[in-house]
Design a protein that fits this description.
Layout (H helix, E strand, L loop, with lengths): L1 E5 L8 H14 L4 E6 L4 H5 L3 H7 L3 H6 L4 H4 L1 E2 L5 E4 L17 H8 L6 E6 L4 H10 L5 E6 L5 H18 L7 E5 L8 H13 L13 H8 L4 H4 L4 H17 L1
Parallel strand pairs: 1-5, 1-6, 2-4, 2-5, 6-7
Antiparallel strand pairs: 3-4
Helix pairs in contact: 1-12, 6-7, 7-8
């Protein structure tokens, strides 16, 4: 099982959108996919209508990380065949991170590796140790996907995320997880702001970016109002085709 961590310490860059669309694509391609929501905002959980049920049944990422639960104890099947989700709830933000071992997620995913082909982790933009768990889980054959918007703060979240992957690897004397930067919300016609952001990224990360970019479209927002990923809501739209290309590029990257 390969693990993809979708992470950026800056919010509003398309992390959940990327996670949900990739999970849906790979499941539709016949893979057994596990999507883990590590964001207390639980947007990925809401996409599949699982929040209230998971909260009542105490089957969430809180139990997975802090309660000693196995993946099979907390994962829910979804309406997408082959796709299972470990939901998140707001209570995740109240947990004592000092009690969370950095390799807890890696160990539980190792135990579940025979049940899935791909694991996708939707990370919170904060909560450092949660992110470290995701980064270590993605080390080895996995990948950290860093979505970015080409605005004035493009380097802040990107640099912090990259620094964090290196810091945790150095602290635990492990290889630094691989990462690739994904440009999201790219307009059809490039503005001066986007051009400047692209130049900054190219200067600091010339070899660490996906060739694929995700174009902006109202179809993404329209689908989100119905809690549908754009690849299901409007499969012929430009961003849906972008996500299909991204899934293929990740396949080559992780081969």
């Amino acid at each position: 099982m390969r693990t993809l961590a979708i992470s950026n310490y800056k919010g509003g860059v398309g992390k959940t959108t990327t996670a949900v669309n990739l999970a849906t694509i790979y499941a539709r391609q016949g893979q057994r996919v596990l999507l883990i929501d590590l964001d207390p905002q639980a947007s990925a959980t809401d996409f599949f209508g699982l929040y209230e049920r998971a909260e009542q049944e105490h089957r969430t990422s809180v139990e997975l990380l802090y309660g000693g639960a196995a993946v099979a104890d907390v994962a829910y099947e979804t309406g997408v065949e082959g796709l299972s989700v470990v939901p998140s709830v707001i209570d995740l933000i109240d947990q004592n991170e000092l009690l969370l071992r950095e390799q807890r997620l890696k160990f539980v995913l190792d135990d579940a590796a025979g049940d899935f082909d791909t694991c996708i982790i939707d990370c919170s933009p904060v909560m450092k140790r949660l992110a470290f768990n995701a980064y270590l889980a993605a080390s080895g054959d996995g990948l950290i996907v860093i979505p970015v918007k080409l605005d004035g703060s493009v380097m802040r979240g990107t640099a912090l995320t990259v620094s964090a992957t290196r810091a945790i690897a150095d602290a635990l004397r492990m290889p630094t997880p691989r990462y690739r930067i994904l440009r999201t919300c790219v307009p059809g016609r490039e503005t001066k702001s986007e051009a400047t952001g692209a130049e900054v990224l190219d200067a600091f990360f010339p070899d660490d970016q996906f060739q694929t970019v995700i174009h902006a479209s109202t179809k993404v927002c329209e689908g989100s109002w119905q809690w549908k990923p754009v690849v299901a809501f409007e499969p012929k739209s430009r961003p849906a085709q972008d996500y299909l290309a991204l899934a293929e590029e990740i396949d080559h990257e992780c081969a």
